[in-house]
Request: fold
Amino acid sequence: MNLIKKLFEYVRYPWVKWISIVLGAIFLLGIIGFVFIIFGGELVVNEEDLILPATTIVETEDGELVGKLYKENRELVSIDQIPNHVQQAFVAVEDVRFDEHAGVDFKSVVRAVYRDILAMEKVEGASTITQQLAKNLFLDNDKTWMRKTKEVMASLYLERHFSKDKLLEMYMNEVYFAHGIYGVGTAASYYFDKSVEELTVTEGALLAGLVKAPNNYSPYIDKERSKARRDIVLSQMEKAGMLETEEMLSLQGKTINIVKQNDEDKPWLDDYLDVVIKEAASTYQLTTEELKRGGYHITVYMNDSAQRIAYQALQKDNYFHGSEPNVEASFVLLDQASGQFEAVIGGRDFNIGDHNRAFIPRQPGSVMKPLAVYGPALMNDYGVYSLLKDRAQSYDDYQVTNADGTYAGDITMYEAVEQSKNAAAVWLLDQIGIDYSKTYLEKMHLSLPDKGLAIALGGLKNGLTPIQIAEAYRTFGHNGEWIEAHAIATIRDRNGKVIGKATPATADVFTKQAAWNMLRMLENVVENGTASSGDYQKALAGKTGTTEHPQIEGKAKDAWFAGITPEYTTALWMGYDQSDAAHYLTKGSSAATIVTKEILQAIDQQQSLTSSFVKPTGVDDVEEPISLPIIDDLSVSYKLGGWSLVQGQLTWTASDDDRVIYHIYKITENGSKQIGQVQGKGQYTLKDVSLFESSSYYVVPYNQLSKQQGEESNQITLSLKD
Reply:
């Protein structure tokens, strides 16, 4: 009681009162500060930063790397994948008391503070693995007391919310290993070409040694320095009881064995990777930024050989003919069975970020005719050998002429396709109707604002892309089915869960018979028509297209070839990015055809392509066209036989094609009268003849496919006077 009374007496003195207040305040502030540091970490920690940016890997179904997308090149691994000896190496050299402290190692802190006081500035760190993780995730590298306080706060927060294994996993995935490499998983692949699970003790020690100063200790920069640093890590492991002394010495005696970095440039991959990026955005709603941080694994359908072959072919200047040297091109190769992108070239020197010409619409020219005219017509009572009108003609204000200025009058669809007749195509579109044609185009996802007959010749307001052309032409090679071209097979997130799988849109456009008929006509175009340029001996059907330059008469703006094989559908465009008086092609679609055939020939050397198309079941084949002969050697003679004992015999040289029918005509007072016919033979027996009268005859060959008659033969007279 006396002691208490004395204390109250002292409090009466002002100086004692103020000292008590100051000490109390200091104590209270200390308590508040301590609690703030302990529990205020959530003010520093950003939960979003705990999700490490990870590399998205794009590879083929065969495991061939197509490309990587990243902000930081980091392939995440779990702690279970990291061998124990690799974990020990990092702990030994960076934070040997990692398993004992709660985020801050106070022994190290005391030592560091002492040395800082002596130097009167921040000169030494005492960061634990948790603190390093906190600094790398949430803070900058400033050596200030405020930054250090925040680091401690964040570290204590992390220790309260995550296990030691999880913290070590995050740390080993986060740290930098020089050369743009982040995380121990990526480093294992980069330095040793192996998975993290395969790392040896010395390899793990080398990687652990890089953390302190990656660019100084990289074996690619200074191998001796790197080995010395690795040996220090091994020594630290021995001091921590992780290695026996003899084992340490043995390991320190090993040389550094790193892989030689492959600097081989594969410029052809950028084109396909760009297609993947675009498809990920349009189909799976994954932005480029998300791909660069999300750590996705994307499997694609790229054919590495075909992609390389197509790129290399388009590098050859001798295939490109223009007023200026910078003629551009784009090439698309689709798998016939599935519609998958096997190769895409967006430009002759394409880089990620450039305009990908496979997606840029161009005027398609005559490659439009099978899509807008002949394919729909085959669905509307027109046949391969139906007769079309081929003559210069005006349709209101639209005048149509043939490119070569010649006209057949009447021509079969087979011939019109082979010779790429403009007049016949426009006439036929006018007959079937533009709206009718567009219903089929829309089934192929070709929605056109155009309403005129110029659609027949590819005179479109917006044009079509090489991808759209390839998608549409595939219908002829695949029983009339359209399918959305696609590059991505599957997308897995960073946890291995499938979040996207190819489910392309499809549509039935043409019947199997119509598609097969069109394919056969296009095959003839390659053999005998406008696509005969170049050399390719295997099965190929296709159509050429050339558009006129708007300013330079007789020159081309766009050159196309769309091709179909049993395995693939192709589309190749050539032209300039700008169309002006200084930029025009001096060679048209034959150039595109030649390049396509070279690409297919090179692919054939890698994988044997099919020599002929196989007719689908339930489909009638297209008969070969009938060529009518010119008959100029008709003769006649008497012979014995029949009821009248005397008959006449007409004889002429018949065609080798026994499908030709010969109509026999007799000239009478009232004109010519057909008296009979014979098929495949060069003779006809006249049964009703008279020895006392003369009669004249002639023969006209007839095409039963096109219902066309040929030219009359020479006239011959049967008479005893001759």
The chain is about 35% helix and 20% strand.
